Fold this sequence. Notes:
By secondary structure, chain A is α/β, with parallel strands linked by helices. Chain A has helices at 22-25, 43-55, 81-101, 113-121, 123-136, 150-154, 187-200, 227-240, 248-253, and strands at residues 3-10, 31-35, 59-63, 106-109, 141-144, 159-162, 164-165, 169-170, 176-177, 202-204, 210-212, 217-220, 244-245. Chain B has helices at residues 24-27, 45-58, 83-104, 115-123, 125-138, 149-157, 191-204, 231-244, 252-261; strands at residues 5-12, 33-37, 61-65, 108-111, 143-146, 162-166, 207-208, 214-215, 221-224, 248-249.
Amino acid sequence: MIKMDINVDMGEGFGRWTLGDDEALMPYISSANIACGFHAGDPRIMRRTVSAAVRHGLDIGAHVALPDLLGFGRRRMALSPEEVRDYGTYQIGALWAFVKSEGGTLSYVKPHGSLYAMINENPAMASALAEGLAGIDPDLILLLLNRNTEAAVARHGIRLIAEGFVDLDYDAKGNLIIERVKAARDPDDVATRALRIATEHKVRTIEGIDLSVDTPTICIHGDAPNALDVVSATRRRFDEAGISLMPIRRILASHSPEQPVA
Amino acid sequence: MGQRVVDLNCDMGESFGAWKMGDDERMFPSISSANVACGFHGGDPRVMARTVELAKRHGVAVGAHPAFPDLVGFGRRNLDVTPDEARTDVLYQIGALWGFCRRAGVALAHVKPHGQLNNLAMTNRVLADAIVAGVKDFDPELLVVAYGGEFAKAARAAGMRVAYEVFADREYNADGTLVSRRVAGAVITDPVRVVERAVAMVLDGHVRAVDGTVLEIPVHTICTHGDTPGAADLAARLRAGLEQAGVRIATMAEVVRQAAVA
């Protein structure tokens, strides 16, 4: 049986401002990437989001970001590897406190926005963040776009998992075409892409060629105007195809260490 | 028969970065003065620029809406600042907004403190004096928006002009303070009653407290709210109701000027 995880960014409100409808999406997904206050989220929102994620049985990941609230972590920032490491430690620790107090488990770390790109393309930065993870818990998984920096991450004993994207376009090099404002996608198209990644490990690029995307987890964005339709349609498609929705950590645990994932 | 001209003011530009608040575009046609957030509780440079441009396009007077530096608390919490901090914080925020006014070629007309800064200035004369000093540092000709109390006294004592603000949707105590929101019925939610009260306030030239006491508060500007459901519709009804009663809507500078002549 094919097992797949759906991860969604959550807890991205701030103070009096709301973003996305987390609780509406939670019944359809298996993992929540929770903002840690640097690009979004605040202590009250973090507790509320962690509590809801635990209630829904979701795996929890720290959605660590650049310290840029105003820019929502989407602007590149010149940082040293030590800064990246310590910003990682800080945010993971902060979220970990809420996860612990709500009785859940922190399973993975996924960088947000521009930090995601910086970590994915630069082994020195990936190594620094992995060091931050290892300093807290060597069992934490690092989610990234591809295995570009796998060796650097593995030096710290951290496992890297490449995730798949179903509501963003890839180019032939495997890079994502980032949208400035999240656009609505046809839920049926997104569900079809998700199913193809799960069953054929392939995604069609904007050039019209097939790219290999072999992953146990796909990311769907919760800030699209029709996010609930997109997420529920994808989940329905998985259910119909007999694909079992399962959090990342459990998927990995169900494979023996010698076997490759998915 | 009292004055037949009044200003309608509304807090504007309270979005921040990726987060949106209020429906400013729909509020602008109904109001004559905008209290523009200056980045401390809401607003950011991009939002401020856009808000000032919108005000200009609608012929709405622009005022600064300085707040405590508390983004996550939206400026609604007590912050134990020194008088000098309050004074420089106010000066800083007025100057920041002024930059956008200057660029857009519109005058900066008034200053209305936001949230808890405004509430505390009602009863705390030291804080009230500090805020007024900050406004006066920038320009002694600026209008100070106050709903009475120590803040209005401080402004008058400093020789500044005061635009007296009233709340058509709030009940008043006999001492001129607002009945706490925690008291049932303190906030009037029925739009028909809000409009009736506003018209009565302007035509009578005073405010009637919940126990019937006549409060000799000049009625220069009526506070409208942009962040509640149906806010834009209520503001439009308020404006229409006032105009049907023969009341002209004008900027607070004009209202205060006319009141001084009368």
